[in-house]
Amino acid sequence: MIALRIALSLVIALAGYQIGSLVADRQRRRVLEIDAWQALLHVLASDVSYTALPLGQALDSASRQAKGLVQEFSAGLARRLEGHVLLSDAWQAELERLRPRSCLTPDDVAPLLELGEQLGRFGRDEHRGFFLRCQERIGIQRRAAADESVRGGRMWRTLGAVAGVALALVLL
Predict the structure, then answer these.
(1) 18-24: long-range contacts (C-beta < 8 A, 24 or more apart)?
(2) Could you give the CA distance from residue 144 to residue 88 in angstroms, rounded to a whole number?
(3) CA 158 to CA 17: how far, in whole Å?
């Protein structure tokens, strides 16, 4: 009977740790998702300004290099643009569609939403500036997310394990 209680206590403690790890993993994925957005914006800025690709072709080129949800965003954006909608409207709609599955916070998404409002309305040089400013703003969010991931990851794992042990002790 004691062995069963100890085993159950260990399972509860490990479950608490695992729950904490899930929260920590979400923070880590947020950093990776921001990195993917920064890479997309970098490619777009380069393609629009240095290779002088039209914005639609630059988006197509960048989507092939994107990863994860950002690649899904790019593919969805291309599909929407085939329907002859405004680029800014398609951008906003795709961000909203993917938001529930994204690890980004509202502060992370805000620069992307603002960028979307500007796309397709100005020339090549202005678009390059929009991409670079958005990339800078997301870079600030990335640094904060990375710090939060390191500090918060340890905290959530520890908190989960402590909560699991506490629950196990109460149940003993």
Answers:
(1) 18/160, 19/160, 19/163, 19/164, 20/156, 20/157, 20/158, 20/159, 20/160, 20/161, 20/163, 21/156, 21/157, 21/160, 23/152, 23/156, 23/160, 24/149, 24/152, 24/153, 24/154, 24/156, 24/157
(2) 28
(3) 7
Which residues does the chain have with pLDDT short of 70? Answer: 55, 168, 171-172
- Name the residue with tokens 């520890």: 158
Q: pTM of the predicted model, to two decimals?
A: 0.77
Helix 2-49 vs helix 68-82: angle between axes, to the nearest 10 degrees? 50
* CA atoms of 145 and 27, how far apart (whole Å): 7
Q: What is the pLDDT of residues 46-85, one digit of tens each?
A: 887 777 777 677 777 777 888 888 888 888 888 888 888 8
pLDDT at 112: 93
For 34, the token pair is: 């921001």
Tokens for 157, please give them: 């794992």
Q: How far apart are the first and last CA of the chain?
A: 11
Type of residue found at 167: L
